[in-house]
């Protein structure tokens, strides 16, 4: 295990004079906090003897029913029996790696990939084989080529790890045509797919995209989370897995943590049952869309020539590529000195590449701060180019 570059950055980036485009923190202050507070008070007052007691490792059955209703928005038909509640989807990743990965096994993942997943795979000594993505997500031909090569080399591929919607960190979305292709290729190679989808309901333009899991219930393991659609503080996510995998996940969860927090689970359950949660998601989407627009407009107005960036249709992140010869990691201290923070690209690759890239988040700062942050960043890049 190694320290995450993002965690190290957070300590510096949280200083008030710095505009942080680094963290991926949801804007929880947009929630009706008084209502949530009342709900929590009620729960302990009315149902405290249950809410404050040990629960189960698979998770509260009624919450799992509600989770199935949430996934139905993406075309997923599932039984609550096959849902395992997790401590955020991060625990889902950990449990999956725990049950699937032996040291030296291969996990195939996009280049770049979510840093928290790479950290988990490394902790279980998986080897990550990266497959490139472009503006339409993971590139099927490259996936086919990589799986073919790994097969010829006799390597054991445990699964494809993918974030199909509003990718962290790349900001891109897997197109509908590619979804079918990716499933076909994984079927041909008999490889499982881990679909990590915390941002799927945070699209700005269209109805939610159909989940990979909706079209292949036997091959796809789906990870979901309430961190971005409600609040990360409850630490409630889930895994929807084929039957046999689900049973192992529950055993792994029991040994990892005995039981979930009933209080957190009841809070999310109550929120879904009694609050206008779809309206709240809509409000989040509008808030993030405005910030995305501000970031894209500011980049277009201010960044020097030679920079390129993705145009996310949802989620939290823009992926920026610097002009040839510049190094986002080496530049980071100079950006901090100029009072702007971002995450250098290198953390999102298991192979140490990614020096020309950076992740910019627009989810947390107010629009005026986003513009100021981009202005400072553009000045730093100008400076580097003139060196
Ligand atoms: N997967 C992805 C792609 C993420 O971006 C995150 C959070 N940044 C997670 C998983 C973990 O989220 P949580 O544990 O809060 O559900």
UniProtKB/TrEMBL annotation:
Pfam families for the chain: Aminotran_1_2 (PF00155)
Protein name: PLP-dependent aminotransferase family protein
Native organism: Actinomadura craniellae
Family per similarity comment: Belongs to the class-I pyridoxal-phosphate-dependent aminotransferase family.
GO molecular function (one): transaminase activity
Keywords attached to this entry: Aminotransferase, Pyridoxal phosphate, Transferase
Source taxon at top rank: Bacteria
Assembly information from the UniProt record: Homodimer.
GO aspect biological process, one term: alpha-amino acid metabolic process
Domain Aminotransferase class I/classII large: 35-377
Cofactor names: pyridoxal 5'-phosphate
């Amino acid at each position: 295990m190694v320290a995450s570059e993002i965690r190290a950055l957070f300590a510096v980036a949280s200083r008030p004079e710095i505009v942080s485009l680094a963290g991926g923190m949801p804007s929880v202050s947009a929630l009706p906090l008084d209502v949530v507070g009342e709900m929590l008070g009620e729960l302990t007052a009315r149902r405290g003897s249950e809410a404050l007691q040990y629960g189960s490792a698979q998770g509260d059955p009624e919450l799992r029913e509600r989770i199935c209703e949430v996934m139905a928005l993406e075309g997923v038909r599932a039984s609550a029996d096959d849902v395992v509640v997790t401590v955020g989807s991060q625990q889902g990743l950990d449990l999956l790696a725990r049950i699937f990965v032996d040291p030296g096994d291969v996990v195939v993942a996009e280049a770049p990939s979510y840093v928290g997943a790479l950290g988990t795979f490394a902790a279980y000594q998986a080897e990550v084989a990266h497959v490139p993505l472009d503006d339409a997500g993971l590139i099927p031909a490259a996936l086919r080529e990589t799986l073919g090569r790994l097969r010829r080399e006799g390597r054991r591929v445990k699964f494809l790890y993918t974030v199909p919607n509003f990718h962290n960190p790349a900001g891109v979305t897997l197109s509908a045509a590619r979804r079918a292709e990716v499933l076909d290729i994984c079927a041909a190679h008999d490889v499982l797919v881990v679909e990590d989808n915390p941002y799927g309901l945070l699209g700005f333009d269209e109805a939610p995209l159909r989940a990979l899991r909706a079209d292949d219930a036997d091959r796809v393991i789906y990870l979901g989370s309430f961190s971005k659609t409600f609040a990360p503080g409850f630490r409630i996510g889930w895994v929807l897995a084929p039957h046999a995998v689900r049973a192992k996940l529950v055993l792994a969860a029991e040994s990892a943590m005995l039981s979930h927090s009933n209080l957190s689970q009841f809070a999310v359950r109550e929120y879904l049952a009694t609050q206008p949660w779809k309206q709240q998601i809509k409000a989040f989407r509008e808030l993030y869309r405005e910030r995305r627009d501000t970031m894209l407009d500011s980049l277009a107005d201010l960044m020097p020539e030679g920079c390129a960036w993705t145009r996310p249709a949802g989620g939290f992140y823009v992926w920026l590529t610097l002009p040839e010869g510049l190094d986002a990691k080496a530049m980071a201290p100079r950006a901090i000195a100029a009072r702007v923070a971002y995450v250098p690209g290198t953390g999102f690759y298991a192979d140490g590449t990614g020096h020309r890239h950076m992740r910019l988040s627009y989810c947390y700062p107010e629009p005026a701060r986003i513009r100021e942050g981009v202005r400072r960043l553009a000045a730093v890049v100008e400076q580097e180019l003139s060196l």
